[in-house]
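Notebook entry, structure prediction.
Reason for the run: the old model in the group folder had no record of what sequence produced it. Starting over properly, with the input documented here first.
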Amino acid sequence: MNTASRMESSGERDRIQVTQVTADLLTAAGFARWLVPRSTKIYVKGKGEMQTYWVSKAKMPAPKGSRMKSDMSTVDETNESDGGTSSGGGSGEYGLGPEDIHTLTKAERLVEWDVALLTSLLQQIIASRGGVVRHIEPLSSEEKSIGTNGTVLEEFTPIIPMKRFEAEDIQQRQRPGSIEISDKVKCQLRGYLSNVASMYKDNPFHNFEHANHVTASVKKLLTRIVNTDESHGLAKGNNKSTGKSSGVNLVDLAGHSYGITSDPLTQFSVVFSAIIHDVDHPGVPNSQLVKENTRSAQIYKNKSVAEQNSVELAWDMLMQDEYEDLRACIYQTKEDLHRFRQLVVNTVMATDIVDKELQALRKARWETAFSGNSEFLNPWGESDDSETDLENRKATIVIEHLIQASDVAHTMQHWHIYKSWNEKFFMECYQAYQQGRAESDPSMNWYKGEIGFFDFYVIPLAKKLQSCGVFGVSSDEYLNYAVANRDEWVRKGESLVKEYLEKYQRQQDQDGASDTASKQGSRA
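New structure, fully documented this time:
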């Protein structure tokens, strides 16, 4: 009723306005070219801001090859300039040029960017195994067995074995650009990502746009990983052909750090995890789900409820028969299947930053891997880890901190990006409070709470990115922005909270006026 009322009051004469649900149905039926997103969102009581669309049957270009830009740097720039609300990405299915981008919804543009990004990583995966893509029917029983012996969180492991490649193997790899991803696989990938997008709720903050903002940060950090310590180079031991030490060459420096960037499956897994990490997020914290004793809280034993649910929903959908060709591009062996699953589980579980027990465990693992703290050494002052285990432990920890930093990337970017996302998160929390799904009014402590969040989480996290020594200049950039945003918040935060409240109240007043007008119109 609220949606219908707001649609009516915000409509225009002789124009057809439809909701996202109707737009999705038209898109699925092949009529996406009819949809033109409104330049401003409408606000619906109880739901927040909502994107609607005008339906126009104006003649649009016929489908043809993709001409839209899909360069990752473009996406990074748009995320830094407008808070992640834009995207690059190829048009793929629709074949539209930049001049026709208005024919795609925001969600469709984001999906197309995700398709372009993951397709590029799939090319690298296939190139790393010599271009081989075979049917994975023999892995069917193995796929079905995953996740059947407990909760997702119980699958977590402190050390994920990274796949190692010799420097020669990397140098002799088939060029990824020469790998052709079939139209069938691209169609499956697009269909999967479109379904993922539809599984995100229309929350002010935890939505598909946020997932893509996180994904852009993950990709940015992955591309900026460097190896400053030659002892961690790929080229260990002797060159097989010459018997001499291989050293560390440009291939190593560009593509390796504790095994993370030498393996494209690892990169794919982390990016995939960023895209799906908040699927079906309810717009309230885990503590509220536990308090309400929801079905998901019961299933996941009151631990990392939303995160486990996201992994399970996204994974179960990927395992459906219709995505078999896509899965065959991701993995070909039992080993790679389980490594993919483990990377997804660990990465998404790392986004639960509220659980104190999990945070304590992460801190201990960091100390073991990077600090050399005597508390974590044996009586001889040495780590019990082998050299390979130590590198794997470091890689696992770096991946966790990479996704954590990306999940709050807005706090470590330009002030206007931080402010935009901070307002969205406030609106989500305040909406939950107004709906009776939060114990206290978030506005009462939002100003001080944000300072504490910077002091005890964001800035220490940025310093860890810096101290682990694998992110190059990005770690300095993130820390500098975090400190600057904290200082700016101290100066402006109190007035901004007042502005947030006033904006929320204006939206409520508009809803009330729309409801009144609708009722009066129905009586007439």
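Summary: Confidence is low (pLDDT under 50) at residues 58-96, 227-256, 374-381.
The old model has been moved to the deprecated folder.
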